[in-house]
Amino acid sequence: MHFSIIEKGAFAVLVTAWVVWGSNIIGNTLVHAEPLKTPAYKVGGEAAAETPAKAVETAATGGGGGDALAMLSAADAGAGAKTFKKCKACHSTAKGGKNKVGPNLWDVVGRAKAGVPGFKFSGALKGLGGEWTYKDLDAFLTKPKKFAKGTKMSFAGLKKPKDRANLIIYLRSLSDQPKPLP
Question: Options 3.40.50.1220, 3.40.50.2300, 1.10.760.10, 1.10.645.10; which CATH number does 64-173 get?
Fold first, then answer.
């Protein structure tokens, strides 16, 4: 018998489909697992599981188990610059600097939210209104996606209040006229 290339190709596709289907059936038969009630692995420093009550407490306190705002007067801009290394792939800080994946952060404290000319902000940030206060920066840096649901920022946030305080003081220093501390 002589098979054409089309027949051989069709037979190969059919055999592949049978193998995939059969592997799926066998795999599902051999491995039956219940979904995990808590994550087996912590991602990005997040708590393994956050109960609804804990989520409300975290949102109310700015998250991270402490108040970064109370630490601002003792915060270290040099340490904040080191923490900012996590951010510099997406954000520039030079006065008049260009936007990257994220907006330029020069003079961000006190600036209007979603207020950088030429940067396309998400609707989540555009809808917030107001200016970037120290409290707002702390909440945003704790969990950006919780502060502005729908934000394009993929950063998970900074869990430690001391890291947030240092970073906020560093961001405050990026100005010709730094805003007074709260």
Answer: 1.10.760.10
